[in-house]
Amino acid sequence: MIRYLLGRLASLIISLIVASLVIFFVIEIIPGDPAAYMLGVGAQPDTLAALRAELGLDVSKPERYLRWVSGMLQGDFGISYTYRSPVSEMILERMWVSLPLALYALILSTLIAFPAGIYAASRRGKTGDFAVMGLSQLGVAIPNFWFAMLLVLAFAINLRLFASGGFPGWDKGFWVGMHALTLPAISLALPQAAILARIMRSALIDMLGEDFVRTARAKGLSRAQALRRHALRNALIPVLTIIGLQFSFLLAGAIVIEKVFYLPGLGRLIFQSISSRDLIVVESTVMLLVFVVIMVNFAVDIAYAAIDPRLRRRR
Amino acid sequence: MKAPTSLIVGGVISGVVLTAAACSLVWTPYDVKLLDVAQKLRPPSLAHWLGVDHFGRDILSMLMLGAQTSIAVALLAVGVGVAAGAPLGLWAAARRGGVADELIMRGNDLVFAFPSLVIAILITAVFGPGAINAIIAIGIFNIPVFARLSRGAALTLWRRDFILAARVAGKSSFRISWEHILPNILNLLIVQGTIQFSLGVLAEAALSYIGLGAQPPTASWGRMLADAQTLVSLAPHVALAPGLTIVLTVLGLNLLGDGLRDLLDPRLKAARG
């Protein structure tokens, strides 16, 4: 187990280093001097030099990379070119919208998918199964941002149960914030729930062929009982992978959904930064997103090993 | 052999979308460059089957032109994924457990850490938005999908007797991969290609919707929805038509993929029951 953990940890660190190099390189090939861009044409050479020094642009590229990475490790993400405020503060502020949204959606999708998948597997080949599978085909095909627009039309404009967009902030109270995130989370969760339900169903059906399930049936358990008591735990392994993968889609998908609901999340920060060529913000935000995705996948790998001891030895 | 229902339904839907896109190359019901402002936001009628948008353009014509963009972007993105991913996967399988295998698989894991949206954001930050960006962003994300699929399928084939015979005959692993393994995994690639194609259509719509994909005047389903967003309470048809078109297209492609899988790999069907 220790060896397995060390191996995973080593590949985690290498992934993070390569990812940061890729992002740094991509952003660095953009021509132009941010300092000159900020000051505009006709800037004095000495003010330009001073600003370049302040932004850390006066050193060589390898040194800038090292400063960027070591800064991030200490929670310093640099200073925004346009706002002149620390990027870490800007990201942190937006993170409080995007992260809860992604988590909210993850919980919703799991709450929908687990019962649906278990139900379909226990009614395999019957009407209930076909109904769930048909709905999941539809769920996969619906673009989440369009579903979001339909939700706004139905629940915000016609029924007036929710606001059609915006975020009041968590300081107005937890439930007020959750209320504002409900429609976005539902629209984000729908396609993921459809995928997860299918994975859940097929993982359970795979388990039905296993000896231990047959033994359970022989003891006199019904198919549904055997599914719930014996197959479910084993089926969790593939399901867990998908949940891990989905988190990255949810976080990225949140960027799209934020636009539908005018939420002040990471997505809006990225788009504003792109249009104002505030590249340090883009660079750090993208790195943070990738970091979260890599960490979640790492956590899933570790969770695997905890659930299934066989995986510790195999790769 | 009886063709499965999903194959027929999926094939028909995909065929209709493809025909509409091909047709729009030479003809659309109305010229979308002529803005008929008097007809602005008219609901569906006999003259305009799907209504008119906020600039006075015929929505059906816009959808037909948008199909071109969707198909071109998704198809090229699948092309990028297969062209780069399949050889990488075959190479990794041929060098199983070796340095190349390890590097390719770890590289795959790394690309998976960059969701296509994040890649698109990076590219847009550098080169500005456009349909080409969408193709690259979706394409890069497709590479590990096809690499993993090819590697996994090739690994089981390498244990088969006919491959052993080819090795005994003195063929290089490159030739074995090309002449014996690739033809045998082609079915899998086609099925996965259909699925990635439908995901590509969805991704293109999402990228265009947030403004990172096709730019005006190129017609795009995603951008039509972005334009429709503020009008949805005034004229719901402006948002309904492009959305339903995307849903139908993706549904059709998914059904086609399912049908193809059942048709090309009867063992899978028996296993799934």
Q: Layout of helices and strands, plus pairs?
A:
The complex is a heterodimer of chains A (315) and B (273).
Chain A: H1 2-28, H2 34-39, H3 45-55, H4 61-73, H5 87-122, H6 127-141, H7 144-158, H8 174-208, H9 211-218, H10 223-260, H11 266-275, H12 279-307, H13 310-313
Helix pairs in contact in A: 1-12, 5-6, 5-8, 5-10, 6-8, 7-8, 7-10, 8-10, 9-10, 10-12, 11-12
Chain B: H1 5-24, H2 59-94, H3 99-112, H4 116-127, H5 131-158, H6 161-168, H7 173-209, H8 221-228, H9 237-264, H10 266-272
Helix pairs in contact in B: 1-2, 1-9, 2-3, 2-5, 2-7, 3-5, 4-5, 5-7, 7-8, 7-9, 8-9, 9-10
Q: Give the proportion of residues in helices of chain A.
A: over 70%
Q: Could you name the CATH topology of chain B?
A: MetI-like fold
Which homologous superfamily in CATH is the superfamily of the largest domain in chain A?
A: MetI-like
Cα distance spanning the termini of chain A: 12 Å
What is the CATH fold-level name of the largest domain in chain A? MetI-like fold
**Structural class, from secondary structure content of chain A?**
mainly alpha
Please state the CA-atom Rg of chain B, rounded to the nearest Å: 22 Å
Can you count the beta strands of chain A? Answer: 0
Low-confidence stretches of chain B are: 269-273
The tally of beta strands of chain B, per DSSP, is: 0
Main sheet overview of chain A? none
Q: How much of the residues of chain A is beta strand, in percent?
A: under 5%
Provide the gyration radius of chain A in Å: 24 Å
Using the alpha-carbon principal axes, give the shape of chain B.
Answer: elongated
Give the rounded overall mean pLDDT of chain A: 85
CATH class of chain B: Mainly Alpha
* Poorly predicted runs of chain A: none
Number of domains of chain B: 1
- Describe the largest sheet of chain B: none
| Proportion of helical residues of chain B | over 70%
